[in-house]
Amino acid sequence: MPDLPELWQWAEFYCPWCYVSAVRLHAIAPEFAGKIRLRERAFPLEVNGGGPPQREELEQEIWLAALQEPRATFNAFKSDWPNTTLPAFEGAWSAAQQGEQIGREFDLAIRRAFFAEGLNIGKPEVILELARQTNLDLDRFQNFIHNGKAKQAILEEGRLGKEEYKVRGTPTLMNSMGKRYRHPLAYPRMEDGRTVGVSQLECFGTGCDDLTRAFFEDTLAESKEN
């Protein structure tokens, strides 16, 4: 059986726009089961970018992200702020080794834990509890983390994104043939830590599903041409 074409989302767990786009991609992915593989790819900004965003910056952004996608739940951040997302990345990679579907569920569980529940996803014990709630095989899950394979894999994936595919920020969406796509998101324009403008909003909530579906359809069409 030939390999399936893939749709790649290079993402960071701090990023509210990655959360919104993940919710949308995961909603459409089941329609293309057996035809296209949706793959979340690690791009930890603390390693491959200019460092993670500051809390003050995110608090300026989450209200705008929340307005654009009701399926992505946001709440005010709590006081326990993560200083890293590497444990979240390691957990997501380890979960994905147990299957695509449960890997996607766990990816969204981490994002909801941070943005909706205010949990510190930089703590390994928080990620382990999420794994328990997702009914993962905990022994297998922890083994990948403790033996270093998960960390090695995510660091290599980030390096691959930065050096081979020229990923510079998150979310970055492309297919496995290298074609890039642009999520229909209205990003804020920031000056001196304040939102001073917003780009045009193309769609809202489920009204964005057709545009999201088009990423899968185009990937499928392009794979048939190659």
Structure description:
With 226 residues, the chain is an alpha+beta fold. The protein has one domain (6-225): 3-Layer(aba) Sandwich (Glutaredoxin), CATH 3.40.30. Helix content is 48%, strand content 12%. It has 9 helices and 6 strands, in the order βαβαααααααββββα. The protein has a 4-stranded mixed sheet with strand order 2-1-3-4, with helices on both faces. A two-stranded antiparallel sheet has the order 5-6. α4 runs antiparallel to α5. The longest helix has 17 residues, at 209-225. 37% of the residues are buried.
The biggest sheet, with number of strands, parallel, antiparallel or mixed sense and barrel status, is:
4 strands, mixed
Class by alpha and beta content: alpha+beta
Query: Can you tell me the CATH class?
Result: Alpha Beta
CATH architecture: 3-Layer(aba) Sandwich
Q: How many separate domains make up the residues?
A: 1
Reported by name, the CATH topology is: Glutaredoxin
> For the record, what is the CATH homologous superfamily label?
Glutaredoxin
Task: Enumerate how many helices there are, as a single number.
Answer: 9
Total number of β-strand segments? 6
| Strand composition percent | 5-15%
Shape: globular
Mean pLDDT: 94
Give the termini separation.
17 Å
Give the fraction of residues assigned to helices: 40-55%
Radius of gyration over alpha carbons? Answer: 17 Å
Largest beta sheet: what is the strand line-up?
A: 2-1-3-4
pLDDT < 50 runs, ≥5 residues: none
Element order: H for helix, E for strand: EHEHHHHHHHEEEEH
Oligomeric form: single chain
